[in-house]
User: Which sequence fits this backbone?
């Protein structure tokens, strides 16, 4: 399970509007993340380095949790656990110039559940690169957000139609144990 740019102070133009859409999505992400953890699915935070080449993820988490920033309520909901992974990215895609591909290979991933912000930017770019690497994509429609809802909706349609992503809601995502070693992710059929 990928959580893209969820640890973010949102202190930028449009950040207040993004928060309005992202907070409900963050609540859905938090529930889905807990279900993933219970099923033994690795949780990976794929986060922007915000142009700070000496940044570290733990410092970013601390900044978002302890300072008075717009993104604090989301960081409180989605604070990483000790067993979670993280990858810092310099640009929009979680794959561009990062170790994400190596980590996914190490974990034996075949299907990615992608969540985060902004749906029309970093989630879309990461999904595109994941599709190019032949991953199966599940991108729950209620677990991504963008500054403008219509742009988020357009991105979801693009990911569904072009990248063959399953965009059902998070409640329909099922983490299925298969044997003792691996967990499969599938969209539950209603």
Assistant:
């Amino acid at each position: 399970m990928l959580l893209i740019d969820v640890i973010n102070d949102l202190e930028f133009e449009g950040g207040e509007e993004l928060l309005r859409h992202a907070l409900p999505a963050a609540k859905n992400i938090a529930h889905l993340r807990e279900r993933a953890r219970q099923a033994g699915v690795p949780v990976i935070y794929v986060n922007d380095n915000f142009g700070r080449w000496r940044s570290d993820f733990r410092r970013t988490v601390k900044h978002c949790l302890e300072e008075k920033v717009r993104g604090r309520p989301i960081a409180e909901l989605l604070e990483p656990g000790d067993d979670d992974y993280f990858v810092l990215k310099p640009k929009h895609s979680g794959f561009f110039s990062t170790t994400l591909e190596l980590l996914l290979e190490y974990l034996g991933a075949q299907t990615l559940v992608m969540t985060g912000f902004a749906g029309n930017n970093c989630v879309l770019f990461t999904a595109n690169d994941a599709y190019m690497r032949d991953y199966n994509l599940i991108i729950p429609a209620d677990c991504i957000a963008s500054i403008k809802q219509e742009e988020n909706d357009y991105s979801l349609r693009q990911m569904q139609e072009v990248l063959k992503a399953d965009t059902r809601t998070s409640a329909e995502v099922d983490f299925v144990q298969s044997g003792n070693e691996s967990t499969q992710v599938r969209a539950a059929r209603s």
Notes: The radius of gyration is 15 Å.
